[in-house]
Amino acid sequence: MFKWFRDECTLPWLLTIDDDMVPLSETDELVHKDAPIVATRAWAKTGAESHTGPGEFSMACLKVHRSVVEAIEPPWFAFEYTDDGAAQTSCECGYFARKARAAGFECVHAGKIGHRITVTVVPGENGPEMIFDPAMARINKQFLSRNKP
Ligand SMILES: [Zn+2]
């Protein structure tokens, strides 16, 4: 998508939203914020807020100006692993954030976005109840990252 945006699209902004994200009214803040890289606050499938360290941001919902995409030499994204390949050390967000900072861009956070996650539905006294199991969410995330093409 970034290659298409750089080479074929002429618009100034690219907005990316993962297919399991759920926009909220607060997500609108991202659209109105004027900065080269704007990301919403986002929550991982583990239920914890993701990418909260200095200079970090989630790519789950991201607005990027053309100047950023053109300044960064591809690949824009990569998953990084330990030397033995047994564990993932960085998702695509961390990789892109480092390359963006190296190119002189800092991310601004604006707004929030929801994340569709796995829950267990059980019969409750007044109808279905949904149980979020953080341990199961971590296992699901590990399974998905191991089986990416
Ligand atoms: Zn990430």
What is the fold's blueprint, element by element?
Layout: H1 2-7, E1 13-17, E2 21-23, H2 28-32, E3 37-41, E4 61-65, H3 66-71, E5 80-81, E6 88-90, H4 92-102, E7 107-115, E8 120-124, E9 127-131, H5 134-146
Parallel strand pairs: 3-7
Antiparallel strand pairs: 1-4, 2-7, 3-4, 5-6, 8-9
Bound molecules: zinc ion.
- Sheet of most strands: 5 strands, mixed
Please give the alpha-carbon distance between the first and last residues. 17 Å
What is the CATH first-level class name of the largest domain? Alpha Beta
Give the proportion of residues in helices.
25-40%
* Derived structural class: alpha+beta
Order of helices and strands: HEEHEEHEEHEEEH
Number of strands: 9
Mean pLDDT: 89
CATH architecture of the largest domain: Alpha-Beta Complex
Bound molecules: zinc ion
**Total number of domains:** 2
Strand content: 25-35%
Total helical segments:
5
Features:
9 strands; Spore Coat Polysaccharide Biosynthesis Protein SpsA, Chain A; two-stranded antiparallel sheet; binds zinc ion; alpha+beta; 28% strand; single chain; 149 residues
Q: What does this entry look like structurally?
A:
With 149 residues, the chain is an alpha+beta fold. The protein has 2 domains: 2-117, Spore Coat Polysaccharide Biosynthesis Protein SpsA, Chain A, CATH 3.90.550.40; 118-149. The chain contains 5 helices and 9 strands. The chain has helices spanning 2-7, 28-32, 66-71, 92-102, 134-146, and strands at residues 13-17, 21-23, 37-41, 61-65, 80-81, 88-90, 107-115, 120-124, 127-131. The strands form 3 sheets. The chain has a 5-stranded mixed sheet with strand order 1-4-3-7-2. A two-stranded antiparallel sheet has the order 5-6. A hairpin with a 2-residue loop joins strand 8 (120-124) and strand 9. The longest helix has 13 residues, at 134-146. The radius of gyration is 17 Å and the shape is globular. The relative contact order is 0.21. Zinc ion binds next to loops.
